[in-house]
Amino acid sequence: MEFERCAIPDVVICMPKVFGDDRGYFMETFRQDELESFLGFRLNFCQDNESKSSFGVLRGLHYQMPPYTQTKLVRVTEGKVLDIAVDIRKGSPHFGESVAVELSAENKKQLFVPRGFAHGFVVLSETATFAYKCDNYYMPEYDRGILFNDEALKIDWKISESEMKLSEKDSEQPLLKDAELFDFNNNLYE
């Protein structure tokens, strides 16, 4: 597995080594020891999730508050998405900035989204199957979000809003300035 830090260095692109021939391919999709060595801290993924969506479905921007903050390791097993991670740690040098990475079944890239970030994606292909690991359980009462089209975030979702399909929940999230956020000075991994 190879790792590459993004413009916001806490967000990491994970690129598995793919071994292929005329029969197909093989790859390790997750190596805890290698990822922990690269990051410099321990992880404990405890929940795997998967969703299937059609073109234009936008899910996000989501996160959970303490004590149920979540790290996510996300990938696409079918189709293509634009994946977004937004730094929502007040006091961070990257506060309000985002990372956008195209994840697809073809490129096999994964995105490590740390605690303290809002996360979302939009489907760019006819359909997409999205899979991810979390290091904390989903707890609805700690679930929060930010409005996907908040002008303060300056996110280019690569498709027009008229093509987007959102849940009622995602279309009614607060703006960044009104959202419950994290403090950059608190270690979210303690």
UniProtKB/TrEMBL annotation:
GO molecular function: dTDP-4-dehydrorhamnose 3,5-epimerase activity
EC primary class: isomerase
InterPro entries assigned: RmlC-like, RmlC-like_jellyroll, RmlC_Cupin_sf
UniProt keyword annotation of Repressor present: no
Keywords: Isomerase
Binding site for substrate: R23, E28, Q47, D48, N49, R59, K72, H119, D143, K165
An individual GO BP term: polysaccharide biosynthetic process
Catalytic activity, EC: 5.1.3.13
Catalytic activity, as annotated: dTDP-4-dehydro-6-deoxy-alpha-D-glucose = dTDP-4-dehydro-beta-L-rhamnose
Signal sequence bounds: none
Active-site residues (renumbered): H62, Y132
UniProt-annotated site: Participates in a stacking interaction with the thymidine ring of dTDP-4-oxo-6-deoxyglucose, residues: Y138
Pathway info: Carbohydrate biosynthesis; dTDP-L-rhamnose biosynthesis
Stored Pfam families: dTDP_sugar_isom
Cellular component GO terms, alphabetical: cytosol
Quaternary structure (record): Homodimer.
Annotated NCBIfam families: rmlC
Listed PANTHER family: DTDP-6-DEOXY-D-GLUCOSE-3,5 EPIMERASE, THYMIDINE DIPHOSPHO-4-KETO-RHAMNOSE 3,5-EPIMERASE
Family stated for the protein in its record: Belongs to the dTDP-4-dehydrorhamnose 3,5-epimerase family.
Known function: Catalyzes the epimerization of the C3' and C5'positions of dTDP-6-deoxy-D-xylo-4-hexulose, forming dTDP-6-deoxy-L-lyxo-4-hexulose.
Protein name as annotated: dTDP-4-dehydrorhamnose 3,5-epimerase
Organism: Zunongwangia profunda
